[in-house]
Amino acid sequence: METLFRYNWAVREDWYRWCEDLSEEELLQNRTGGMGSILHTFFILLM
């Protein structure tokens, strides 16, 4: 279980680092396959 937790935490950090390189426009652009935009999807997942 701890291995899964560490993996999920590492993937989360990778996503945050990747998002730091995106513009606000890219983060807010509507997309298919999620909850709308990347930023909106992150907020929904964190709730």
Describe this protein with a few key phrases:
single chain; 47 residues; mainly alpha; 3 helices; globular
* Gyration radius, in Å: 12 Å
Principal-axes geometry comes out as: globular
Class computed from helices, strands and strand pairing: mainly alpha
* DSSP, total strands: 0
Cα-to-Cα separation, first versus last residue: 22 Å
How would a crystallographer describe the biggest sheet?
none
* Average pLDDT metric: 88
| Helical percentage | over 70%
Quickly count the helices: 3
Could you spell the SSE succession in H and E letters?
Answer: HHH
The total domain count is: 1
Strand fraction equals under 5%
pLDDT < 50 stretches: none
Quaternary structure classification: single chain
